[in-house]
Task: structure prediction
Amino acid sequence: MVRTSVLMLIGFLVFASTDAPAAPPAAGAAKSIEDASKRLENARSALTAAVQRIEQEPPRGADLDAALAAVEALKEALNAGASFETEDLEYAKSVLAARKQLRTDREYVDERRAKVHIHDYRRRIDSALAPLNERMSKLGQGDPGSKAMDEARAAVDALEKLTEEGRPLKSQDPKFSSYLTDVEATVARHRKTLDERWLQLSAQKQRGLLDASRKSLASALADLGKAWSDEKFTAADKATAALQKQLEEGKPLEVQDKAYRADADKARAEVTQARRQMDESVVQAGVSRVKVELEPAHEELRASAKALRVKRPTPEQLAEAKTAAFVGRKLVDKYEPQAARSQAIGQYLAEVKNTLVEVEVVLQVRTLDAARAEVMQALRNIEKRAATAEQFEEAKTALVVLEKTLETVHVKNPAISPAAADARQLLRDGRATMERRRYEVDLQQQRVKVDEARKNAAALVIQIQKETPSPAQLQEAENAVKQIGAVLEVGAPFVKKDRDYALYAKETKERMADLGERINRRKIVLAAADARVQLASRLTTTKEKLEAAKGISSTDGDVETASKSVDEVMQMFEANAALERQDAGYAASAERARAEWLKLVEALEFAKQARALRRLTGEALGVASKASEAAASSTDLRKKKELYASALEKLTACQDEGARMVKENASLATVDVLVGGTPTQPQEVMAQCAQKAEALQAPQKRADVELRFQDGQRKAYDSAKSLLSKGRKSEALSQLNDCIAEGRILENRYPDFKEQKFDIGGASMSMLELIQVCAKERKALQPAP
Result:
């Protein structure tokens, strides 16, 4: 039994490995078999519930999404417990059942999702098919118009595109496959109907145009048959050509529409008959009719040809020949169609053409010679050294005129061919000459521009060397040097084409670098001179401020101002550090100034110490004197005590700190300290501070004793009296005890003041006397033994 279970388990594991290869445990792998089993059961239950919800028709999109999520959740639960499948048989059985459920439900969910997609797609097709059917039903009623035809064709194209997009869904649903096949057949039927309807409408339209052309030809032939005239013949010829054009345009319709083909055959026969009738009309009219209009022009041509045979015809003769040739050409073109229909007219017209061509050839040769002369003169002008842009434009225009003239001549005529060949060669040579001279002139002008830029820059650089230039002049010189580079950049193409210019450009760039270096050197020299002036000025100002700080009456503000001035000198050294490396003169000045600055730093430090000494001695003595005077005149014991304490503190600092500073720096002993407006030596001031401090000891101590007496003993006595007046004897007794205690403390701490009289509510009493009073009153309040 055990062996069978083991075999089943091995078979299950093999099946599981082929169905879904095991993957490494995911980050959310189960921690135990119980956890994996619980998760698996929850996922299976959720999938079962989700599948039940999508069984309704039609399923909701949210339910389909939830079912797909439940499938994924079951798959994740299986993966999370994959490591326990070989450890527990019951869990392995649950996994086997879960995998079967996963496969079955996943296929069902995919199928339901596909059906919903097919259902939505079918609705889209139906929404496009219904209006198309309605539109197609209206096309067969009367003339729908080109707009309705185009809209119907666009609707058919859109529906066909929908069916092509839905073909991949045929394999998923047989019913949808059959439905889509029917729709495709409907699309093909509608497209065929559109093509037939379009052919029908096109044939009707073309038939109408053909009928109109046939009627026009019949009318023109009828007019020509009544009486001959050139106008009537021309009208009939144009009507014939118009009908022939309509036949050519409707040729594709003949293959598809038999009725139209029959009408076209009739029209084609009418064209043939019309041409035959026009030929007969030309023969009947004869050559004499043509000579009536053409012979005077022919005579003028013969006269012009004779006049042109001389070596140098006059301008009037040339003008008359041009007019005669123009008139003759127009008349020949007019009777050309009749010449094709009558041999006699054709022979006569050939004679006129020969004379006309003779005159035209002579005129064209002379016109060509004149155009060549203009080109040659224009080319000679641009060969000059100082050719202008206008002369180049004249040469360009002359070449264009010669080219256009060549297009109008009979180049195949033997009389013109040599002149035409020379003109073509002149065109090629002239264009090459123009291109060469344009390059040479452009190169020459480029060199002139570079020379001008160089001269301008050199002049400005020389100018800033001779005088003290302003910043604007320096900037102008720099811009002038930059302008050389800009001009060279414009002529960059010449560097590759002309070796001499390349060498010239190279030399110009070197010149640019030299000019730029000269400007930079000049700027350095100017900056160094300016820096020297500023440094000297700043040192002078600093010395003045330092002298003020060293004065006997200097303030902290004077010392601070001098200190800032010294710092500013240092900042100037730092700001111009690069200038020291660039200019030796400034470097030497800066070195000397730095030595002076170091002396100023030392003097500043001594001034700070002197100022501190004066503040701690002379000024402290003055402040202490004022505080002691205020204390002596003050009636407020507490304020009096504070003033005496402050005065003593200042005086003590005067002695101690003053002595320390003089000890640390013996030079301070020579500093004058202002006391009461009189310069005094520091040692004397410190002695005065000691004397003043000793003199203040007694009044300071008296003030302290009196304040303690008033705040302690007297306060307790006054409180007791107040409590007794209110009948609060026990509390008054406590205050009297405090009065006696405070009095004893004062008596012991200050024995020198135990007989000292103090003011008590208008009376004068010592601390011993007040003790006796408090003891007496306390005795009266104490109960009898």
